[in-house]
Amino acid sequence: MSVPPAPPLLLASRSPQRRAILEQLGIPFEVVVPEWDELREGDPLETVRENARGKARSAAAPEERPVLGVDTEVVLDGRVFGKPETSTEAEAMLEALAGRTHEVVSGLCLVTPGWEVVEHDVTRVSFRPLDARDLAAYVGLGEWQGRAGAYAVQGRGAALVERIEGDYLNVVGLPAALLVRLLAERFSGVYGFG
Q: For residues 194 and 187, is the Cβ–Cβ distance under 8 A?
């Protein structure tokens, strides 16, 4: 007897990194663009949790398919390092992160018509010391564009990192270990976990 295929998750995100991680994990999904104006003020942990919840709720469907919303921020000394708008802003962010340890904080929300769960994950990332040449070379690549904290760890930004403590995929953009745990608990065996 064959097992019926798992219903695709609805991913409330435009992020190509999140799509790639779900593909890597073998989790079927469909993309739904969330209709949520992201919060930018307040406690970073509460902000990412609320943004994840808002994204998931905005894309919620009447059927039993779970909707996944995620929000990720880079935080150093309580300051959120969002997506820089200019190369000058990107260089200033990277200079502030250089030689220091920051946190990548993600909120994750799964919503169905019957329940909702919101959790978070934190990964600590230590950058190596960076000099002006390092900063100029990385910023010159343009990889900082559209990236929280002005770097992409899955790309050339990996050369900026000295150590990662926690879920590497959280730094890429999706707290995969947390998602797998929640799917195993809430949908045992359906998505291949639990």
A: yes
